[in-house]
Design brief:
This protein is of the alpha/beta class. It has 30 helices and 20 strands. The strands form 6 sheets. The chain has an 8-stranded mixed sheet with strand order 8-9-10-7-11-5-6-12, with helices on both faces. Strands 13-15-14 form a 3-stranded antiparallel sheet. Strands 18-19-20 form a 3-stranded parallel sheet, with no helix packed on it.
């Protein structure tokens, strides 16, 4: 850290001028009595001038006593924070009232501490202010503090866990008191000579901030006595290392892009600490990539706390959902630290910057701005970071940046992170033995099932005494769920409740629903305050859903009270919102924060709510969207039965636009919707699928009725919002179809309607993957025109594309399993790497098509036209090529076992497959075919070409 004021940079580390000896007995009795007299909740009466306080207690004002007063106050504040923060654990039901199991008697605590400290003497040396966590006093007072907590009603594991968190809370309180009441301890500055006591105001603010970072990982998780630190398991990750080309590699290995890299496993924290220690100015940015709930944010907090404790580099932790990505990074960081309240200077300013600074930007995917494409926002931010890092590190390494983000947004920006080991991909708690073969794991890190370690820690911290992962949770889909840190913990919470039946097909949304019920039962049922009396669970959930929807419409994780009120007013829930906010004022905020959200500050003079984890908001938003589908279906059905009631198609689409137009649906929200639909009756899903087909058909004829929305927008914004609503329509329709396994029959008004629409939804690619193209399975598009369309990476599984015109279409790497292309015109189509297993291509025109690396296993190509087609490295195992036209085709199949080529025309074809065992060539035409390198080379093929009454030879080995 810089020493622009205070101790000169060249001055060596100072030591105490003299030791301070404190005898506790009389001092503690006097201070303890004053604290009891003040009351547990009014201890601030001790926060006056130190000399006056000591004088009022009949004590002197020497250095030792003032120092002890600082320590005592810090202890009391830390203990109070711990008890207040966990008081909800003491709430017990008595009739219809929530009462504390026992009164919190602070005098008993003082008496216990007095007895423990009776014969103790504390010698404060030069290490105290540098490492206050190591104060020997903690070992003396932890036991009486724990015993007192048990007397208050905490169970033994809870009391143990809370008392173990005391040192971190003490350090935070110590820094806060020293910074807020410097006049109380002026004599210490005069008498003592340490970096702490002589530090400038700027350095003191850094100390307070770093102490706060360490305290964050000790804060209680949800409704628990323990914090993240008590159950955290060190994460593993991998980086990709490019392989050098090998001329002797097998065909299939050379042809697969994934095999051009090997995945090197590392311990994530160790890897990043080595990066910090090296401090190379040309390698100053690292990226952590992981899916939702993979532990990115938890790791970022733990890493920040650990580096803060080491004190070798200044650490700034910035959650990006609290960050305004302005054009200039320096200004944005300055605004963030001012709003945060700890630092008064901008650590990125050229004249005020630190000599070494680590900035951790957590959650790159949060940089979504209303009306602006999220990917573009994140990309601009990444490039701004790179530009500023290059500028700051012009001559020496001063600034290093760690960025975390979800996989999709990191992938979208991967071209900006090209350095070796720059992107670290988080690995789950558990990797199967078969999956481990995909990694280079020199230190055998992946052999450990970290779920076992986590459950042991959880058992110890919670008092449930688990020795490892319960066997009933290690099966089916639960194996994958428990391998993810956040989901594993949610499973644990629900498992302890015992209300969900866990099986190999367990639905994640059912677990979220169970936790939602737990919050309601814990905080609302039976509460007697008249303002919230009688609130029902369904209303409680409705409000949470509206908060989630408002967050999705706004900034992803946060929203304002005004935005929530607008949503609730539109659907008649304003009264319930008032009840909800009144409940929060009565002390239930933490119950809600425990699982879903907390009040996070002010935006434009309006209070904001923030989801504690983005996935909670996504789950609730998914519930809200499914509720909207049900209402739309019911309203349309009502109109069919009574013309004076319900909605017509335009009104239904307008309601859908209100739900989905402000924000773009992503893959994570789609998966929550899919899981929420799985919890519904299949007959309802089938009805909703038909309703959504009807709405899309209407929209293709008339467009989205944006004019019906209450507030009209500028054209470009309204057009973008209509695009969002249409994409959401297609996505939810596809979710229904995946569950019903029925075709989605969209009635297109014209033969080019769907092609025009999908072109609009796809737009210009910003990435390899386009989500709208993932939602085309089970779709019915018979006879449509899709010439020259870009469907690279599309999912047309089990779609009906019979007789579709799709000349020059791009279907590279697409999923076309079980799709029906019967009679389709796919001339000159690019199907490179496509999966066409079990597809029906009977009578299809694939002339001049590129099928390199395609999978056609079990595909039906009977009578298909493959003239001049490229079939290099294609898999034709068990495929039906009977009567297929392979004239002049480049025929390099990697697997032709069991293929049926009876009566196929291979005239002029180029065959380069050595092994044609079990292929059936009965009556196949090999006239002019190039058979060099095959087992047919040099053989008499007249028997194949003849058309006689003799029994034909179908196996090449018969020749």
């Amino acid at each position: 850290m810089s020493n622009t004021s205070g101790i000169p940079v060249s001055k060596p580390v100072a030591i105490w001028n003299k030791d301070i000896k404190v005898n506790f007995r009389d001092l503690f009795k006097s201070l303890g009595k004053a604290a009891v007299d003040a009351g547990f909740g009014k201890w601030d009466s001790l926060a006056g001038d130190a000399v006056d306080t000591l004088g009022a207690l009949g004590l002197g004002a020497d250095t030792g006593q003032v120092a002890w007063l600082l320590i005592y106050r810090s202890l009391m504040q830390a203990m109070r924070s711990l008890v207040e923060g966990n008081k909800d654990l003491l709430v017990k039901k008595q009739g219809n009232k929530d009462l504390l199991g026992k009164e919190i008697d602070f005098k008993v605590l003082c008496d216990r501490l007095d007895k423990s400290l009776q014969n103790s003497q504390l010698v404060i040396d030069q290490n105290f202010f540098e490492r206050p966590k190591d104060l020997p006093l903690f070992e003396v007072i932890k036991t009486p503090f724990r015993e007192w907590l048990e007397d208050c009603g905490f169970n033994q594991p809870q009391a143990e866990t809370i008392s173990n968190r005391l040192p971190s809370y003490f350090v935070d309180a110590l820094n806060e008191l020293w910074g807020n009441h410097p006049q109380d301890y002026a004599c210490l500055k005069d008498k003592l000579d340490t970096p702490f006591t002589k530090a400038s105001e700027r350095e003191q603010r850094w100390r307070r901030y770093l102490a706060w970072l360490q305290k964050q990982v000790e804060e209680p998780m949800f409704l628990e006595a323990f914090g993240l630190k008590q159950v955290y398991v060190p994460l593993r990750a991998y980086y990709q290392r490019k392989l050098e080309g090998d001329k002797n590699e097998e065909f299939e290995r050379r042809s697969r892009e994934d095999n051009k890299y090997e995945q090197i496993v590392v311990d994530l924290e160790t890897e990043l600490e080595l990066w910090l220690e090296k401090g190379e100015r040309n390698d100053a940015i690292r990226v952590i990539s992981g899916g939702p709930g993979s532990g990115k944010s938890s790791f970022a907090k733990i890493f920040a706390a650990n580096q803060a404790e080491k004190g070798q580099v200044s650490v700034l932790f910035i959650p990006l959902h609290h960050f305004d990505p302005s054009d200039d990074l320096v200004d944005a960081v300055g605004k963030f630290v001012r709003d945060d309240g700890f630092l008064r200077h901008n650590p990125l300013q050229q004249d005020e910057g630190e000599s070494r600074l680590l900035i951790i930007f957590d959650a790159l995917d949060e940089l979504a701005m209303q009306g602006k494409i999220a990917e573009k926002t994140a990309q601009d931010f990444v490039r701004e970071v790179q530009k500023k890092v290059d500028r700051f590190n012009g001559r020496e390494n001063r600034l290093q940046v760690l960025i975390s983000g979800r996989e999709l947004v990191v992938q979208a920006n991967s071209t900006d992170f090209r350095l070796h080991q720059q992107i670290l991909h988080i690995l789950p708690y558990f990797i199967t033995e078969d999956e481990r073969k995909n990694y280079i794991d020199t230190h055998k890190l992946l052999e450990q099932d970290q779920r076992q370690v986590w459950w042991q820690s959880y058992g110890k911290a919670s008092g449930y005494e688990y020795t490892g992962l319960p066997s009933e949770l290690d099966q089916g889909k639960l194996t994958e769920i428990t391998a993810q840190p956040l989901l594993n913990y949610l499973v644990a919470l629900s498992f302890v409740r015992g209300t969900v039946r866990f099986s190999e097909d367990s639905n994640l949304n059912a677990i979220y629903e169970d936790l939602l019920k737990a919050v309601y039962e814990r905080g609302w049922t039976g509460y007697q305050h008249p303002a919230i009396q009688g609130i029902e669970e369904k209303d409680f959930v409705r409000i949470l859903e509206e908060i989630a929807l408002a967050s999705w419409h706004g900034y992803g994780r946060t929203t304002t009270v005004k935005q929530i009120e607008n949503h609730c007013e539109n659907i008649g829930l304003k009264r319930l919102l008032n009840i909800f906010q009144e409940g929060a004022k009565l002390g239930l905020t933490r119950l809600l924060a425990a699982f879903y959200f907390r009040q996070s500050g002010v935006r434009a003079e309006d209070k904001t709510f923030e989801f504690t984890h983005k996935s909670f908001g996504e789950y609730l938003t998914a519930r809200r969207i499914v509720r909207g589908i049900k209402r739309i279906h019911d309203e349309l059905e009502q109109r069919e039965n009574d013309l004076d009631r319900g909605w017509d198609d335009r009104q239904a689409l307008a309601h859908w636009a209100i739900l989905c137009c402000p924000s773009s649906m992503d893959e994570y929200l789609f998966n929550f919707i899919l899981d929420e639909l799985r919890l519904q009756h299949l007959s309802d899903i089938s009805n909703w699928q038909q309703t959504l087909c009807r709405l899309i058909s209407f929209m293709l004829s008339h467009g989205m009725p944006m004019e019906l929305l209450n507030r009209r927008q500028e054209f470009w914004l309204e057009n973008w919002q209509a695009h969002n609503a249409e994409k959401a329509l297609l996505a939810v329709l596809n979710a229904c179809a995946r569950l019903t396994r029925k075709k989605s029959d969209i009635k297109c008004p014209y033969i080019d309607s769907f092609g025009i629409w999908i072109s609009r939804l796809r737009g210009q690619r910003l990435d390899v993957d386009v989500l709208s193209l993932k939602y085309l399975s089970f779709i019915y598009l018979q006879g449509q025109i899709l010439h020259i369309q870009d469907f690279c990476g599309a999912n047309f599984e089990e779609a009906n594309l019979e007789d579709v015109e799709m000349v020059l279409i791009n279907l590279v790497e697409s999923n076309l399993r079980y799709a029906n292309f019967r009679g389709a015109n796919m001339a000159r189509a690019n199907l490179q790497g496509a999966n066409l297993s079990n597809a029906n291509l009977e009578n299809a025109n694939l002339s001049n098509a590129n099928l390199e690396n395609a999978n056609l296993e079990n595909a039906n190509l009977e009578n298909a036209n493959l003239e001049n087609a490229t079939l290099t490295l294609v898999n034709l195992k068990q495929s039906n090529l009977r009567k297929a036209n392979l004239k002049r085709a480049s025929f390099f199949p990697i697997n032709i076992e069991g293929a049926d080529l009876r009566e196929a025309n291979l005239q002029g074809a180029y065959l380069a497959q050595e092994n044609l065992v079990d292929a059936n060539f009965e009556k196949a035409n090999f006239e002019g075919a190039n058979l060099q390198g095959t087992i047919l080379e040099g053989k008499n093929l007249t028997k194949f070409n003849q058309d006689s009454d003799q029994t034909p030879i179908s196996n090449p080995h018969q020749l």
